[in-house]
Design brief:
82 residues; single chain; 0% strand; binds zinc ion
Length: 82
Amino acid sequence: MKAECANAVDYLYQYIDEELTWSRRLRVRWHLRRCGPCMDAFDFESRLKERIKECGRDEPPQELLDRIRAFIEQEAAGGQEN
Ligand SMILES: [Zn+2]
């Protein structure tokens, strides 16, 4: 996994929760636009977050977050073969 992808993933959660400053949001957006695996992960996370809200839960279970993170890392590693 590339370092910039790792950073983007770290910011992803805060981005979705709208806890980022505008400069960091821009940085994440910029990365998502040029990085397919992270964009897919972002889509997935956003939808998941919506679902969780609909179900009336504030926070997803930690186990689920761990699984998502593993999935993202796998995707990012597999999608970037240079
Ligand atoms: Zn990326």
